[in-house]
Amino acid sequence: MNKNYAIYSPVILPLTTHVGAGIALDNHRYDLSYQVYQERADRIRIESYYFRTQFDFDNGTTLKFQYLEDAISGASPTGALPGNEQSFLTEIEDVRTGVLYALSHQFGDHTVEAEFSRSSEDDYLSYGFALSDKWELNQKNTTFTYGVNYIDDQVTVLGLPDQGKKSYDLFAGVTQIIDKNTTVSINFTMGYSEGYLNDPYKLIQRNETINFPGIPPIPVVNVYSENRPDSRLRQVLQLEGKHFFEKANASLDVMLRFSNDDYGVFSQTAEVEWRQGVGDSWEINPFMRYYQQNAADFFTNTLNNIAVVNPPTYPDGSGPHYSSDYRLSSFNALSLGLRLRYEINENISMSAAYEYYTMSGQGSDQAPSQAYMDADIWTFGLNAKF
Q1: What digits encode the pLDDT tens for the residues 4-19?
Q2: Are 29 and 54 in contact (CB under 8 A)?
Q3: What is the DSSP pairing of strand 250-261 with strand 374-385?
């Protein structure tokens, strides 16, 4: 399980009217937030702390910084089936820290942004680099966005040297203003990952026998490491529309996302959010998200029917492939939530949100029902801009 990020000190800039020679600071923003993700039945708990800041300069340059820290604890399914001598759940405890820096500059109709991120855990280290361009044309009624993203990960696997994993993404999208109250957008991402793609904490069981001369075979249940392919090609298409209803002082945001990969996983996501202004200070946003996916081609709950004589202790991605990770099974998930925002004055606002998340298996390629979870998510934030 990827669990962490490493601590960096934020960039400290003087909050004066001018920064540097002849470069004025137009705006600066600060966001603090705290989130608790709690799975029910004493499963995973994550407490997250976020700090974000943004500085806008009058020469068209923007600097962004984000710091996060997650404290993770609780129990997660191992991949073994419940009710056997092998443990169905395992305890996890870790801290994840991470930083992100982004620098953008406007060149005429183009805004180019370069991004660097670093995250670390006890057993995971990740570096990310991204470069993108936002191109405004048609009197800023049409915006093209395109770019590349690269992630270099190092995974600690007990008994092996650190394993590498690399991910590459190409993305492009267009946003069109239909009228003063309506926008639509379409975005497409093509991604490829290679290297160590297994989860080193996920296992899969097999029913076997121990044979001794002169006595009947003794049945046992053994567990082995999962073995996913060492590459993954994925495509994501996202469609979104927004409309503001003047009489209601509210807006509707509808999003559809379709994802497909060569694991055989095809997923669909639908999200609806209503943003309701109340008076001069309040905004109330109920939202709903539905997600559904089919199982990966190599998902299986046991190795009993997989043609592998001696499952390797350290799988290298070569076939046959197998995993009992419930996240690769056939399931659906539903989120229902409510966000509140209160504007104290023109510079400072507060926010709070609650989200209920539930998963359930479907069809013949589902994991045991105990693998899926219900979770409560609470988020609180403080925002300031000057």
Answers
A1: 322 223 332 333 333 4
A2: yes
A3: unpaired
